[in-house]
Amino acid sequence: MKMRVGSPVRPASLKAWIKQLMATPLAAAIIALLLLLAGVVFTLQVDRIGRTEKLRQASVQAQILASGIAAPLAFGDEATLREYLEALRADPQIIAVGAYDATGRFVAGYNVVPTRLPDHGRLAEPAMTARDLTVTAAVVQGGTRLGTVYLRATLDSWQRRATRYAGLAAIVLMASLLIATLGASYASLHEAHARLQEETASRQQAEEALRQSQKMEALGQLTGGVAHDFNNLLMVASGSLDLMDRTDDPARLDRLKAGIRHAVDRGAKLTQQLLAFSRRSPLKAEVVDLGDRIRGMDTLLDRLTTNGISLKTSIASNLWPVEIDPSELEVALLNVVINARDAMPQGGLVTISAENLPGDGGAPDQVRIAISDTGTGIPPDVLDRIFEPFFTTKGAGHGTGLGLSQVYGFVRASGGDIQVESVPGQGTRITLLLPRSTLSPIRSQPEQPVVEAASKRRILLVEDNDTVAEMVGGMLDEIGYEQERAASGDEALVRLEQGANFALVLSDMIMPGKLNGLDLVHEIGRRWPRMPAVLMTGFSEASISARGEGIPLLTKPFSIQSLSAQINDTLSRS
Amino acid sequence: MRGPRLAVLMLCAMFVGLWTAHARAAPLEQAVKASFLFKFAPFVEWPDNGAGAGKPFTICVVGEDPFGATLDEVVRGQRISGRSVNVRRLGDSGNAAGCQMLFAGRSSSAGYAPFAAVAGQPVLTVSDQKSGVQGSMIQFVMQAGRVRFQIDEGAARSNGLVISSKLLGLAISVERK
Questions:
Q1: Distance (Å, rounded) from C-alpha A544 to C-alpha A553?
Q2: Sequential DSSP letters for A417-439
Q3: Is the pTM of the predicted complex or chain greater than 0.80?
Q4: Is a pLDDT exceeding 60 seen at residue A397?
Q5: Which one, out of A31, A240, A366, B175, has a CA that is 20 to 30 A from the CA of A4?
Q6: How many angstroms separate the CA atoms of B52 and B96, rounded?
Q7: Above 60 in pLDDT, residue B6?
Q8: CB contact (8 A) between residue A142 and residue B45
C-alpha cells in the first residue's frame, strides 16, 4: 500500500506546499470543519456556563428563602412558613421545596410528583444531574442554626437547550458552507490563474520567437540592400579602373579617379550607417547648425520625391545650434520622410520646417523640426505603437519596423522629445524637439590640404593586414615620413626595445598575439612615456575606451589628409 | 365498706386521670415556651454584644420556674452568637446581674416586682400572661391552643435592645411607644 499523505516534506518547499494546499477544496473543507468544531465547543462551553449560573441562581434562591423563613420556622408559624414556600410555586422550574427544623424534622414544603422530598433535612453539597439540580441552605439567625431549606429545580431538557442554540448552529453551519464554497471556487480560480499564466508564458515565448524572426527578416532585407549598394559601388570602382587602363587622357583619368573616390566615400558612409544601425557606434555629438545639415541633404531627399510627391523645406534663419550626432540626424530625417512618402501612394506634399521654439515658464529653449505629409494618416489604435521596434504596417518585405524606432532613440538620446499628430485621411505631422546648445557650431571644412612632414621622422606602423599596411605605408611615404612595419603588438615591442629611433607609433586596434592596440599603447606609455602613439580602428566599441583615455584615434577608413593632420597634431603636442 | 372505698378509689382514679391529662398538656406547653424562650435570643441584638464575648449567655428565671429541666434540655449544647448558653434560677429575689434574658414566673411573695432590678438595663424580659406578671417586653399568650407572644417593642428599644422585624412580624401584637 502506498503512503501518500505522510510523504516527507522538505522545509524549503514547505511554504510552497502550504500555498498549494491552501488552493485545494480539501483545505476549505478542513477550515469549515474546524469552524464547525469551534462552534460545537463554544456551544458546550456556553451550556456549561449556563448550568453553573443556574446552580448559583438556585443557591441564592435557597439562601433568600432560608433567611425569610427563619422566624416562622423558629416559632412554628406554619401558615407564614407555607406562604413563603408557596410563593416559589410561581417558578415552574422549582419542583420541590422543603423546610426542616434544627433537628432535621420536616416542617413544611411542597413537591411536584414524581419528585419526592427527603424525610430528613440536612446540609449537603449542591448536586447536579442531567435533568435537575439540588441545593440546600442553612436557616441561621443571629449565629444560631434554626433549620435547613431544601430546593430542587429542573434543568432545561436537551431539546429545549438545542432549540436555544439552533440559531447559533445555523449561523455556524452557513459560515462553514460559505467557506467551503469560497474555498472551492478559490481553488478553481487558482487553477485557472495558473493555466492562464502558463498560457501567457507560452504566448510570450511565441511572441519572442516571432520578434526574432522579424529581426532576421529585417536583417536579411538590410544586408540585401547593402549588398546591392556595394555591388553598385564596386561596379563603378572596378569599371573605372578598367577604363583607366585603356586611356591616357589626363582629363578623363581625373574624371574616372573622381568617380572612384565618390564610390569609395559612399561605401564608407554606408558602413558607418550600418554600424550606427547596429548601435555599436556611440552618438558622436557635435554642435551643428540644423539649417546647414538639412539643406545638405537636398540631393538625398530629392531622390525620394518621385511619383507625384513634392518636397518643400522651410527653414527659419538664425536657427539656434543643437548638439547632436549629424549622421543620426540624417538617418532620422530620411526615415521620417520615407514614411511620409510611403503614406502617400497617390502623391502629395512633404513639408520639412525648422524653427526656434523659445522656452517659457522654466521650459528650455528648443529647436523644432516638423515633417508633415498629406498622406493617409495613422489609425488611432496604432498611434501608440509606431515607435516600437519592429512595429510596421507595411507588408512583409517592405518595412523593417526600425525606422521610427531609430528616430525615437536618436531624439531621446539627444535629450529631446518627439510628438506625433495624425488625422486619418488628412496626414501626419511628426515634430522633433531638440534642446538648444549654448556652444557655437563647428563649420565643417570641406577639403583640408595634406600636412607635409616637417622633417624626416621614423614612424613604427603596427598592422597585421598586409594590404592595409602597404596602403597606409604608401600614405606615410607620400606625406614624407620614414616608416617601418611590425605585424603584431609583440613584434612592435621588440622593435622599440632594439632602440631604433622612432618618433611615433601608429597601431591598429585589433591584432593577433598577446597585445591588442590598446594594450600596446598602455605598455608603451609605461616603458617609454615620451613616445606618442596613434590608434587606427574600424570598430567603434574598442574606440570608446580609447577615446575615454584620451588616446589619439583615426577611424577607418581615413583619408591621407586626416592621417597627415592627426600625425602632425600628435607630434607637435608631444 | 367496699362501696364507698371503691367510689373513693374511682374518684381518685378520675382525679389521677384528669391530673395526668393536665400534667401531659402542661409540660408540652411549657416545653414549647422553653424552646421559644431560647429562640428569642437570635432575633434580638444586645448593645454590648462584644463585651460579653467569652462569657456564657445567661438566661435567668425569677420566681417560680415553670420549665424545670425542660429549659436545660433546650439550651444544652446550643450557642448564641458563639457563646455557650447558661440557665440561672434566681428564686424570688436573686441578683439579676449578668443576665441577658430574664423570665419571671409567678410568685406568692408580697411586693413581687421581678423587673424592677433590671429597669433601664439591656436585659430582655419575658413573662407568661397566665402568671399575671406585667411589664415584660415579651409576653407569652395562648391563642387557639397555640403558644403565641406579644411584644412591647418600645420598652425593648428604651432599654437598648433591637428586636428583629422577623420576630415582630410573628407577634400577635406589637406595642410601639
A1: 10
A2: EEEEEEETTTEEEEEEEEEBPSS
A3: no
A4: no
A5: A31
A6: 15
A7: no
A8: yes
**Which residue has cell 605605408?**
A473
Helices (H), A6-135: 14-22, 25-68, 70-74, 78-87
Where in chain B are the domains?
28-175
Same domain, A257 and A328: no
Interface contact A144-B81, CB threshold 8 A: yes
Residue A429 and residue A565 share a domain: no
Contact A142 B82 (CB under 8 A): no
- Are B169 and A71 a contacting pair at CB < 8 A? yes
Non-local (6+) Cβ contacts of A462 within 8 A are A485, A486, A487, A488, A489, A491, A492, A505, A506, A507, A508, A511, A517, A520
- The CATH number of whichever domain residue A62 belongs to comes to 3.30.450.20
For residues A222 and A311, membership in a common domain is answered with no
Q: Which CATH architecture has domain B28-175?
A: 3-Layer(aba) Sandwich (3.40)
The answer to whether the Cβ–Cβ distance between A144 and B45 falls below 8 Å is no
Strand partners, A147: A101, A139
Q: Say what the pLDDT of residue A307 is.
A: 72
In A, which residues are within 8 Å of B32 by CB distance?
76
Same domain, residue pair A405 and A507? no
CA atoms within 13 A on the CB side of A452: 2
Tell which B residues from 122 to 151 touch A, by Cβ distance under 8 Å. 146, 149
Nearest of A91, A44, A70 to residue A148 by alpha carbon: A70
Q: Indicate the residue of A71, A143, A144 with minimum beta-carbon distance to B170.
A: A71
Q: Give how many domains chain A has, as a whole number.
A: 4
Measured in angstroms, the CA of B29 and the nearest CA of chain A are apart by 13
C-alpha cell at A512: 593577433
Residues of A in contact with B43 (CB under 8 A): 70-71, 74, 141-142
The verdict on B78 touching A (C-beta cutoff 8 Å) is yes
* Domain end among A114, A140, A164: A164
Res. B151 pLDDT band, cuts 50 70 90: very high
Contacts of B140 in chain A (CB under 8 A): none
Contact A144 B78 (CB under 8 A): yes
CA torsion sign, A308 to A309 to A313 to A314? positive
CA nearest B79 in A: which residue? A144
Q: What is the ipTM of this complex?
A: 0.77
Is it the case that residue B23 has pLDDT exceeding 60? Answer: no
- Same domain for A290 and A431, yes or no, is yes
Residues 6+ apart with CB under 8 A from A178: none
Inter-residue contact A553 to A562 (CB < 8 Å):
no
**Alpha-carbon dihedral A342, A343, A349, A351, rounded to 10 degrees:** -90
Q: Domain range spanning residue A398? A: 286-435
CB contact under 8 A, B170 and A141: no
Residue A366: inside a domain: yes
> Which among A76, A77, A146 has the least Cβ separation from residue B42?
A146
What's the CA gap between A281 and B52, in Å, rounded? 120
